[in-house]
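tool_call predict_complex ligand=fe (ii) ion
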Amino acid sequence: MGTEGIETGPGGIERRVGVGLRLKLFGFLLPLVFLLIVTVTLVVTEVTKFTLRRDLLQRGAAISRVVSLSAGHSLLAKDPLGLDRLVSETRASDPDIAFVSIRDASDIVVAHDRVTERGKPYRPVPPLFPLGTFGDTRADEVVRDGRRLIEYTTPISFAGRRVGIASLGLSMEGLATAQRSIRQRIFAAAAIILVAAFFGTLLLSSFITTPVKRLHQGVLSLASSERFQPVPSHSSDELGALTRNFNRMAETILAQKNSLQKKALQLEESYVSMVRVIAASLDARDPYTMGHSTRVARMSCALGRRLGINEEELSHLERAAIFHDLGKIQTPDDVLLKGERLSRAEEEQMKNHPVDGTEILRMAPFLHRYIPVVRAHHEWYNGEGYPDGIRGDEIPLHAQLIALADAFDAMTTDRPYREALSTQDAIDEILQFRGTQFSPELADAFAKMVREMPPTDETTLKSMAL
Ligand SMILES: [Fe+2]
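tool_result ok
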């Protein structure tokens, strides 16, 4: 059972089937970057609003103080023209100034940018809330004549005497407009940064995960194939070093793997050679069976080749044929070399050789693949063979081919109790057993193969390299 999101393939190789590292990284980074940008935007907006408001407050207070300082002498000297000029010039100096007023110590307006206000008592309005003091100037937010204003009040003193009060109204619309304009610009910039952050995060995720993805592909290629393509690496950071080290490690593993495979092949060849020698020695025990295994191998391979078996399988067939009577090494000489027909008990003893052969092959793991064929080479197509009584297609194809070649070679070789049959008689005998001992199709194919050989050259047939 694999981990969630992971599929385990042949050889235990794990492959991702769920959300990838890049998407996970992207999904993690993007909200963080968005949160950061939104937070910074809000903070910048608030700081800008505060700064604009503070600047406006300080600007108004400074103007109010200038008016107060300039008005002292004219107020004491009762110079209405000087006060009017001061008021009108101040009013004209800044478009945000809503009104400028100077009143005397009795709170009678003596100068105002609106002429109608002159000579009237000052009209106080209740402050909405105080905005602070700047030196001797007080600032309040008020609503006067339907407009929201910052109203500054600065006492006018001259020669140590308080002679009046200067009032200045500053419109808040300019501040609101400025704040709105700044906010729009900040939000527009934030939107552009958000879009850039989206693609930037995507790019960053790819940049980080691409080397990891390549490494993953490299591991898959190393695990699933003989040829390894080194993972490309161009960076000098930790991932680059990891990739280069992985390439070196993979090459070492492949070199060791190849060396092991070569050694395993050599070992297998050694085992096979050893068993060939044993099989040849076995054939040599009985002068009548000299070269029997080799002839069976050649004939069964010739038939296999005609049936379209590929070269690799033919090689396995050839070895299985060489080994097919290996179990006879355990058959006593007085049974194996008996010059007359065997008794029932001796026949049973002889019939043990397919099983004895498999026991010998079982000793070497490289030879295990030949066990089913060696065990089944005396099975009959109709199930009356031994040792297991299997039938038809249950009998391995290689075992059926060996059985045909084995029978043909036995019949065409002199035995102590009978002379060798001719090729034609041997074929007839084999065809008599089609459907019982042999597969009908294979028996026919074998007979056809033998008939197509030169009719008189039976010696060649027995030693042919078909
Ligand atoms: Fe045999």
